[in-house]
Amino acid sequence: MATSPPNDPVSTARDLLQRARGNDALTTLQRAAGTGNIEAWYELALWRLIGHPVARDLPAARQALSMAAKGGHADAAMMLIALTANGSGGRIDWSGALNLLKREAQHHAHAAAVLKLVNANNLTEDGYPQQKLERQHLTDNGSVYYIPRFLSHNECDHIARAGADLFEPARVIDPATGRNIPHPIRTSDVAVIGPVREDLAIRSINLRIAHETDTAVDQGEALTLLRYAPRQQFRLHSDIIPGTRNQRICTAILYLNEGFVGGQTRFPDHDLDITPRRGGALIFQNVLEDGRPDSKARHAGLPVSKGAKWIATRWIRAKSFDPWMGPE
Ligand SMILES: O=C(O)CCC(=O)C(=O)O
Ligand SMILES: [Fe+2]
């Protein structure tokens, strides 16, 4: 049965795409965008970000987001602000992004909430903290340490919300069969808070992690949200990636909640169990001074037996890491 043709340009374009008429789809959107249709600009921006059905072009994506944002598109504005701050498709520009957010906050409640989170911190003009936080060394050589007041409770809630709609069960490709199978080690649900979702509250947290670990912010992989339901766990493992040229030198685990049963982070070789406390950050080195993997850094997220455990992990590489490239 024939369906009646959709009458808005975005639906029309998507419909054309479904029928493998990519060029017509693009023309439809570009025409609509030319008449000031902000949904068409937004859709064009998404295509440029995703890299389908057109090539990925981050500067062009930002241009399109800017057009949509100027017309009042709230999601486009938030994405533009994220990309401006993290330097996707342009130079890193915290203060430019903050100015955009201040303007946006006058019209949209979500932007106002993010601005409030950012303003609760005393930041440099590049968005970094002014000083380091109090830390507790858990090993003699300082390879594992804990920062009890790393996040405010509002920041914990914000991180949890920033990725919650993206949760999916952890999976890996089975090398034997090539099939996508449940992850044998990590049974939690995972959600990656990538560069497009790195709003200024998330960005300021990523900058804080860089500051505390004496690393450059672009060494960090995207902040990843993990949620463990009862019986879920992260079995004993090392965060090291075998054979990579850009090793995960250290890891920051942010504890977003408490009140569940179980779920401690255990380092068997240090005889260390860390009980998650809301707002705390556990940071540890995965490599020795000479850069070789530290076998004692292996650790586990013990099974949760009651309630849900929420954390956010940032794995930090030896050199800069491009969040727009897939895993190597
Ligand atoms: O859940 C935990 O406590 C450990 C998480 C972990 O090992 C990781 O995210 O790499
Ligand atoms: Fe780990």
TrEMBL record:
It is an enzyme of class 1 (oxidoreductase). Residues 219-318 form the Fe2OG dioxygenase domain. It comes from the Bacteria. Its EC number is 1.14.11.2. Its cofactor is L-ascorbate. One of its GO terms (molecular function) is L-ascorbic acid binding. SUPFAM superfamilies: HCP-like. PROSITE patterns: FE2OG_OXY. The keyword Cell inner membrane does not apply. Signal peptide: none annotated. Keywords: Dioxygenase, Endoplasmic reticulum, Glycoprotein, Iron, Metal-binding, Oxidoreductase, Vitamin C. SMART domains: P4Hc. This is Prolyl 4-hydroxylase. It comes from Sphingomonas pseudosanguinis.
